[in-house]
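Hi team,

Below is the intake form for Internal alternative NAD(P)H-ubiquinone oxidoreductase A1, mitochondrial from Solanum pinnatisectum. Please confirm the fields before the structure is written into the shared record.

FORM ID: S-0412
PROTEIN: Internal alternative NAD(P)H-ubiquinone oxidoreductase A1, mitochondrial
ORGANISM: Solanum pinnatisectum
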Amino acid sequence: MALVRAARSSLRRSGGAIGNYASERNIFCEGISPLRHHVPVFEKAVTGFNSSYIPSTQMINQLSFGNRGMKFTPQYQFPHAEAQTVGGSDSKNERSSYPGLEATKQGEKPRVVVLGSGWAACRFLKGIDTTMYDVVCIAPRNHMVFTPLLASTCVGTLEFRSVAEPVTQIQKALAKDPNSYFFLASCTGVDADKHEVYCETVGDRGVSHEHYRFKVAYDKLVIASGAEPLTFGIKGVEEHAFFLREVQNAQEIRKKLLMNLMVSETPGISEEEKERLLHCVVIGGGPTGVEFSGELSDFIMRDVRERYAHVKNYIHVTLIEANEILSSFDVGLREYATKHLTKVGVRLVHGVVKEVHPDKIVLSDGSDVPYGLLVWSTGVGPSKFIKSLDIPKSPGGRIGIDEWLRVPSVEDVFAIGDCAGFLEQTGKPVLPALAQVAERQGKYLVKLFTDIGKQNGGKALSAKDITPGDPFVYKHLGSMATVGRYKALVDLRQAKGEKGVSLAGFMSWFIWRSAYLTRVISWRNRFYVAMNWGTTLIFGRDNTKIG
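The structure came back. Fields below:
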């Protein structure tokens, strides 16, 4: 292990950290303690978010990366900067001794720290002027996921690399500039008084990995850490259901689906067990749940019937929704989706899940639904990290922001994406957790930071008297969803209840594919997606189980 330090002398801001460091185990903890300090501070830091700065001093003693402005140096040269190994709560004195990036000096570019690698964070990173700012991105994954096409990877329509774009390709300065970095780690706390974030390194699940703590000083902080799937505290969901938010989720779903298909062909498996193993249940009738159900039905009708002929009559899909599917879409489009899904073999059930067991779910009416694969897609809510921040929240528990995406209760802190929502006093509604909202906020914040930088407000505490310009205004561009078998829905209304263009059928499917192909971030991934669609059309989906 190696101690990572910035290769420059430290310049520490005055002021003490008031927040404490505590790990929260309950993802659905309730209540946010009110502000009760005269100094703005974030409290109760938790491990829900990540970076890649690895400050340790025992494995790598001699490596030097001078061209990046960082060095891995033997510990004995810096006895006061000993690596922090995770193991309990840290006092504010211990936090202050973390190794890391110290405050920027006079004459250096201001440093912007971005927490997250989702739609909002990556749109901001893509547009930020790196001649004006140094950028540090801290996130638990090193890539952005193109979520609209994620469901297609679960059944082999697309390969996983087609929907993942490395952060260092989106913003090349993170890999090349001497004072810009990407850190694969969790943000565990923020001290707004000292302008520092505290982080903890992460590793792959199931792989032994020693965690270390470090700090990064910032001039401007952008919190874009996203949200977590909502489980409503239902027993068994986290243990037995699959979510569909990350590439890793899609990989797990694909492995489980193929494994169940192969196991069901084993001699001695009872008819009842085959029915259970090949029953795919989707909870949640939003766009993600509907699109995944449509992809599954396509996979069953074209690929399973050809390649798993012995069990083709056992596999079926059930979509369970408490209200109406695609509730944000036009009524006519919802009716079309219902009829089409039913036609292609998806069973629609109105019900509320009460409990989840390893091989069945229990509905509120007492009925049992056996399953072999359970995918949970009921929306998102604030993460443990967001809940831990002792700052005013918007309705729903997100970070409260003003019309300029600033966190009003603290200085030099901004929040965008699914983790942020307008405060009630702004008079604006909390925007939906959509990719287009996050992307638009990231783009707006780029312009705001450019204006601030041009007025010499990039450094910490230097933008108080700067006029921010026009506030952020969101205009909805419409919604799209595929329902399988070359059919899709396109709803171009700007808001629910308003009039607008609504399309359904093959032409909508063509629009859906064309729109998303152009929205894929890089030309490399556009090529991957187009090639995957072509090979799937000609040769069928890949049903190889690897791992």
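SUMMARY LINE: Confidence is low (pLDDT under 50) at residues 1-89.

Thanks, M.
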